Amino acid sequence: MDTFILAATSFTIAVSLMISGRKDHLQSSFSRLCAAVFISQAAISMGEVFHFGFLQKISYLGTLAIAPLALGFFRYLTRTKSLISLRMFVLFILTSLCGTVCVFTSLSNGVYFNAAITSYTLFALVLCYAALWWHTNKLPSGNEKKRFGYLLFVCPIALVPGNMHLLNYWGLQLPVVKGVASSVLLYFILLVIAYPQLRELHDFFARWLIIFVNTVTGAVIFYFAALFFNGTPPTIMGLLLAAFLISLSFSPMKMILRKIFSYFYPDSKDVFTSLYEFDEKLEREKALMLAEMAPVVAHEIRNPLGSIKGAAQYLKSEASTQEQHELLNVIVEGTDRLNNVVSQILDYARPYKLNLKSQNINLVIKKVISIIAANKLVEKIAIVQDLDEKLPEVEVDEQQFIQVILNIALNAIESMPQGGTLTFRTSSKELESEGMIIVTIRDTGIGINNKDIKDIFKPFFTTKERGTGLGLAICQKIIKEHGGSISVESISFQGTVFSIRLKAIAQD
């Protein structure tokens, strides 16, 4: 089982890299290395079952291929500027070719042939590790050095579980898990080369945590299913290995099936879309449809609206009674309100062209406060400013961000008809190795009930009698266009807090 899990893991990684479609020498060389590991371990695993002599020879061929392929991969990994020279690489290719010839002679039947091939492969892997160590020490501080440092740390760690069975000499009965340890190492190398955006060790552990949780969950399901249908509980180790293999091979198998189905059924693009992803997909499609339809609908509505308003204003100037004036005022106000709704729909539907500039958010908030004060909207409202003076700058479109803050502030003021306190607060913190600034707008108004709070960012949802339900939806869209997030918390009759998070500009 141990050799089988390594064979299956290496096969999964090799196939996933081959079908990914990337023209990358580094990933191609690693896929060839994994293919050699697969051939070697698959032959050993099958040999334990079928006992065919030719399987031993295939195992030897796979093992002999590992040495030059490993050296070739580490040459690409270190950008050919390492201890592994081209001459050394060619020498190992020739050595492996000589070993291949020996496999088909009587020498392969010798007692020490297997030990010689194993020692030769281990020597090549030690050279690879030394080359990586030498190259990493020469790198300047940065993301690449950090990732290679993690790899240098994980390689020897993988040897520990791989050789724990040696403690059996002291009476301990530990399973052989060399294949599992090697599988973990291969997957970690895959993360290093395929996901350069993973910069911290906890990022790699997070990836492994997903695999671990999926493995344990699958093992538990298999255990109870076997217990229910068969009555005999399987071994825990076998369950974990099977669940690990399924968890690791799920994505590559999905990629393979997608390639096959896209060839035979090119129109069935959504067949592999998760049921949980359909809602997001539908939201994107609705947003795209709205973006296409909104300008046409706005044009068709505004033309007759303009005619209606013009006619009402003309009749208003000719009206002879107060009742006629009031009726025509209703028409003019109605056309203005409809025109405003159309404008908001266009604002929500059209893609934004942000004019990003480095800004001090505190200054932007002070501008919003001055706008509110100039319009005498806060006669019964006490405004509190709790602004962090050491706040880092962020890249924002000032006018768009003013629109967001002003919209939220006006909603807050409307929620405090009897007066209250409106608090603007800014702060900063480190989140996932990136600086973030947080803007909170707090009121002491009537709040939002639990039934409505989950829908307040949805387009056209409103609790106001004359509201369009697009104000907060537009705010959320603007913040998302800035790469940030907006959230809300509220307690009925106590107040509401809106929180906006944006990435800060990195400080030198």
Tell me the layout of helices and strands:
Elements: H1 2-19, H2 25-50, H3 53-77, H4 86-103, H5 113-138, H6 143-162, H7 178-194, H8 201-229, H9 236-264, H10 278-318, H11 322-349, E1 357-359, H12 361-374, E2 381-386, E3 394-396, H13 398-414, E4 420-431, E5 434-443, H14 450-453, H15 471-481, E6 485-491, E7 495-503
Parallel strand pairs: 2-4
Antiparallel strand pairs: 1-3, 4-5, 5-7, 6-7
What this model shows, in words?
The protein has 508 residues and is of the alpha+beta class. It folds into three domains: 150 residues; 75 residues; 147 residues, Heat Shock Protein 90 (2-Layer Sandwich), CATH 3.30.565. 64% of the residues lie in helices and 10% in strands. The strands form two sheets. Strands 2-4-5-7-6 form a five-stranded mixed β-sheet. A hairpin with a 3-residue loop joins strand 6 and strand 7. It starts with a helix and ends in a 5-residue tail after the last strand.
**Alpha-beta content class:** alpha+beta
Distance between the termini: 53 Å
What's the total helix number? 15
The total tally of domains equals 3
Q: What is the beta-strand fraction?
A: 5-15%
What would you call the shape?
Answer: elongated
Largest beta-sheet details: 5 strands, mixed
| Rg estimate, integer Å | 33 Å
Total strands: 7
Round the mean pLDDT to the nearest integer and report it: 79
Q: Which spans have pLDDT < 50 for at least 5 consecutive residues?
A: 164-170
